[in-house]
Amino acid sequence: MSGRLQSKNVLVTGGNSGIGRSIVETFVGQGATVSFTGRDQATIDEVAAAVGEQGQGIRADVSDIASHKAVVDQAVDRFGKLDVFVANAGIAEIRPFVETDEALYDRLMDINVKGLFFGVQSAVKQMNDGGSIVLVGSVVSVKGFPGYSAYSATKGAVRTLARVLAAELAERNIRVNVLSPGPIDTPIIGRQGLDRGVMEENFVPMVPLKRLGRAEEMANLALFLASDESSYITGADLHADGGIGQV
Ligand SMILES: NC(=O)c1ccc[n+]([C@@H]2O[C@H](COP(=O)([O-])OP(=O)(O)OC[C@H]3O[C@@H](n4cnc5c(N)ncnc54)[C@H](OP(=O)(O)O)[C@@H]3O)[C@@H](O)[C@H]2O)c1
Known about the structure:
Layout (H helix, E strand, L loop, with lengths): L8 E4 L5 H12 L3 E6 L2 H11 L3 E5 L8 H12 L2 E6 L14 H24 L1 E10 L12 H21 L5 E7 L6 H4 L4 H8 L11 H12 L10 E4 L7
């Protein structure tokens, strides 16, 4: 059976957890060959075992800019030039604006902005014309939630960057779009020091669909943006957020 990403070579950052993991599994299920990165070796191995021969896990930290070229080379050596790059790796940290110190600011910027910026730059050098780049943003680029100042600044930067990259890369028919999740039920909740119940209490009342989103729902949108089904869409910011930023 032919999949929606048959014969496409994909690189996903942060493919060993949450949304990224679901993207890796969904894309492999649709016929793609997928290399993915992450920092935690145990979960990298787990996802690699789950997806088998069509996948490859690579341990790399996106804030280590010098590592990007080697990651892309490893992906290309195994499966060929890239057709799709998904810049998904990211962290979230909550702190009131006046208490946000330089270390927190730098941590968020280094991973969510600088790591993404240079990741795309390395990927694009080894990408086939006609490719697709998906940048994972967030509803926080269009809506202000207390405590998320530095994180929101990173996602605003991602959205802005997408416009320029879409303009520059159009001559190679490479499309660049943003996938902006709302509150999604993934391990990032615990990593912010919240538990799932608190996340639900804080966000669900504001979500018109009255629930957290699921990683697979983000993967389905990533699949659309990665595939030729979205061939006339570039520079866009598609929100999958239960309506929290839209209604
Ligand atoms: N869940 C939400 O509510 C939500 C909402 C809006 C936007 N987003 C965005 O969606 C993306 C994925 O988040 P998620 O919810 O799936 O969270 P998650 O489960 O915590 O996954 C984050 C992924 O990013 C990787 N990562 C983080 N820092 C990295 C680094 N320095 N180098 C390489 N990989 C790194 C993690 O790898 P390790 O596990 O190895 O560290 C993990 O694979 C992020 O960009 C996030 O900002 C999430």
